[in-house]
C-alpha cells in the first residue's frame, strides 16, 4: 500500500500536557473532512511527567498508524527537550511547531541534569528552517485555563497548512470531543494558536 497523499503529524510532550487529546482532535477533524485517520501513542510514565508521543496519519490509504523516522510532515513539540529527542521523525523541509515553555525532567529538578529549554529552542531553530515557536504561556494567560495548551497548538497546525485542516474543521471536532462548558475558551485558544503562525 502506498503512502502517497498521506499526511503525518508527530506530537510529543510530557504527561499532563494533553498530547493524546490533541492527536485525537486532529484525527477527528480529518474524519469530519471525509478523510481516514489512524493514531497511535507511546506513553512512558505519563503520570510522573514521562514522555508521551502520539502519531497521527490522515489520508485515504494509510499503511500504518506509526510514522517511520524521517516521514513526519509536521512535528509538534509540547516541550523543547521532547521535540529535540524526536526530531529524527521530521522529514527534510518538514515543519516544527514548538511550545516555548520547558517542563524540566525529574533529573533536572534533582540537580542531575543541565537541561535548559532556551538552549534547546535555539538548537532547534538553527536546525529546522520551518520552526515556529509558540508563546503558549501568553495564550494560557489570556484564556485563563492551562488546559487549552493542546488546542492552541492544533490551531498553529491549521495555520501551517501542513495537514490540510482548517480552523472550521477543528471547530467541528471540538464540538464532538469537548464538553459545552469549555468549548468557547478552546475555540479562543485555537484561533490564538493559529495567529502565532506568520
Descriptors for this entry?
198 residues; Pyruvate-ferredoxin Oxidoreductase, domain 3; single chain; globular; 6 strands
Give the CATH level 1 class: Alpha Beta
Question: Would you list the SSEs in sequence order as H and E?
Answer: EHEEEHEHHEHHHH
SS-derived structural category: alpha/beta
User: What is the overall shape?
Assistant: globular
Number of domains: 1
Number of strands: 6
Q: What is the CA-based Rg, rounded?
A: 16 Å
- The percentage of residues in β strands lies in 15-25%
Strand order in the sheet with the most strands: 2-3-1-4-5-6
CATH topology name: Pyruvate-ferredoxin Oxidoreductase, domain 3
CATH architecture: 3-Layer(aba) Sandwich
What is the overall pLDDT average?
89
Q: Which stretches of 5+ consecutive residues score pLDDT under 50?
A: none
Could you give me the name of the CATH homologous superfamily? Pyruvate-ferredoxin oxidoreductase, PFOR, domain III
Gap between N and C termini:
36 Å
Q: Tally the helices.
A: 8
Helix content percent band: 25-40%
For the biggest sheet, the summary is: 6 strands, mixed
Amino acid at each position: 500500500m502506498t503512502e502517497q497523499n498521506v499526511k503525518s503529524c508527530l506530537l510529543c510532550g510530557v504527561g499532563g500536557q494533553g498530547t493524546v487529546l490533541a492527536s485525537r482532535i486532529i484525527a477527528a477533524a480529518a474524519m469530519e473532512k471525509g478523510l481516514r485517520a489512524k493514531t497511535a501513542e507511546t506513553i512512558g510514565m505519563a503520570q510522573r511527567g514521562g514522555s508521551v508521543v502520539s502519531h497521527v496519519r490522515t489520508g485515504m490509504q494509510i499503511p500504518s498508524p506509526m510514522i517511520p523516522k524521517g516521514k513526519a510532515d509536521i512535528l509538534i513539540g509540547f516541550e523543547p527537550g521532547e521535540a529535540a529527542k524526536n526530531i529524527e521523525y521530521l522529514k527534510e523541509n518538514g515543519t516544527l511547531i514548538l511550545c516555548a515553555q520547558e517542563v524540566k525532567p525529574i533529573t533536572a529538578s534533582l540537580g542531575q541534569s543541565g537541561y535548559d529549554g532556551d538552549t534547546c529552542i535555539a538548537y532547534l531553530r538553527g536546525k529546522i528552517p520551518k520552526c515556529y515557536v509558540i508563546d503558549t504561556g501568553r495564550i494560557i494567560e489570556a484564556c485563563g485555563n492551562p488546559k487549552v495548551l493542546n488546542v492552541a497548538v492544533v490551531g498553529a497546525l491549521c495555520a501551517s497548512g501542513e495537514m490540510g485542516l482548517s480552523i472550521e474543521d477543528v471547530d467541528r471536532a471540538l464540538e464532538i470531543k469537548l464538553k459545552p462548558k469549555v468549548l468557547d475558551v478552546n475555540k479562543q485558544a485555537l484561533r490564538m494558536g493559529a495567529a502565532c503562525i506568520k
